[in-house]
Amino acid sequence: MNLRFSNKAISGILTVVPAREVAFEQEMANYNFSPAKCLKLKLAMGYGKHRIVAGDACASDLCVRGLTALFDRGLLKKDEIDALILVTQSPDHFMPPTSNIIQGRLGLKRDLLCLDICQGCAGFVIGLVEAFMLLEQEAIRKVVLLNADVLSRRVSPRDRNSFPLIGDAASVTIVEKDPSGGPIHANLKMDGSQADALMIPAGGFRCPSSPETARLEEDENGNFRAKDHLVMKGDAVFNFVQTEVPPMIAGLMNAAGADPGSVDYFMFHQPNRFMLRKLADKMQVGYEKMPSNIVENFGNSSGVTIPLAVTFNAGERLLRERLKICLAGFGVGLTWASILMNVGPLAFCEMIEYD
């Protein structure tokens, strides 16, 4: 599905990462693998260190930290916000919506649309599409897009396929009307027939959590996880990304009438360095244009890896320059989506910590 928007722009991006940083070597003893094999895995996948929340910190806590920082610095005013979108797979509760909880904690106005979207790896892009659609309304002038996940709390520490790469993070993106914003092109696709490629089997109404779903079981590769934990079919996800993402981006460029060589950055979701570099090779995009350094420094925080890639790799440039950026997410759902748009100069584009 191809979409087109105009007269809209991103005016600021703030990312929030937990202060707690854990190195791969600190966790190797948890894996049913020799130290030598663990270090070989680290080298191949690009593992380094990841940021994970402490205690019972939730997605709303990271979002409130980010929004409060913007309010305190005068970069955002509470009464300016007309819509609050939260994209998360790890809500505080089944009900009420976590976006409503955030609105209440911060004392935001009642004349405000709060909306939760359950999306993962492509969630940041899906959230932007929703923000652009809301801005078509005369009454909505400024949308705050929140993207947050604390999935480390639902990944087995003894699963070397998933735990070394998982990370927790949040982002706050301001999206507003801008007559000089230029055209925005988007492309999105879904395939629920492969939904089990990335899944937490238990915990919902289909399979409620119980002592049985919390019991660790060993898989054929020596990983220990329970039904309450994330399970990823690595080969299926890798093949999906390599097969579906390049034609999606080609279709996006064709619809926009754009030359891939004119794109300053391909800021993509980052499952791990290995997968992203293979994708860059297939698309014939230089590594400098498609950064792959988020997982090794912060971990895979699902869709939040996209704004993290922006603030970490282009934060300074976007404060003073206007760049053509292709944003793309792909994974859980299965869902894959992309956007081509001009970004910058921004009022802010930075990263802060959550203590």
What does the radius of gyration come to? 19 Å
| pLDDT averaged over residues | 96
* Poorly predicted segments: none
Number of strands: 17
| Bulk shape | globular
CATH topology: Peroxisomal Thiolase, Chain A, domain 1
Oligomer: single chain
H/I helix tally: 8
Q: Helices and strands: which structural class?
A: alpha/beta
Order of helices and strands: EEEHHEHEHEHEEEEEEEHEHHEEE
CATH superfamily: Thiolase/Chalcone synthase
CATH class: Alpha Beta
Largest sheet: 6 strands, mixed
Strand content: 25-35%
End-to-end C-alpha gap: 41 Å
Instruction: Estimate percent helicity.
Output: 25-40%
Strand order of the largest sheet: 6-5-7-8-2-17
What does this structure look like?
The model has no long low-confidence stretch (mean pLDDT 96). It is globular and about 55 Å long. It starts with a strand and ends with a strand. Strand 15 (323-331) and strand 16 form a beta hairpin. The protein is 28% helix and 26% strand. The protein contains eight helices and 17 strands. It has a single domain, classed as Peroxisomal Thiolase, Chain A, domain 1. By secondary structure, it is an alpha/beta fold. It has a six-stranded mixed β-sheet, with helices on both faces.
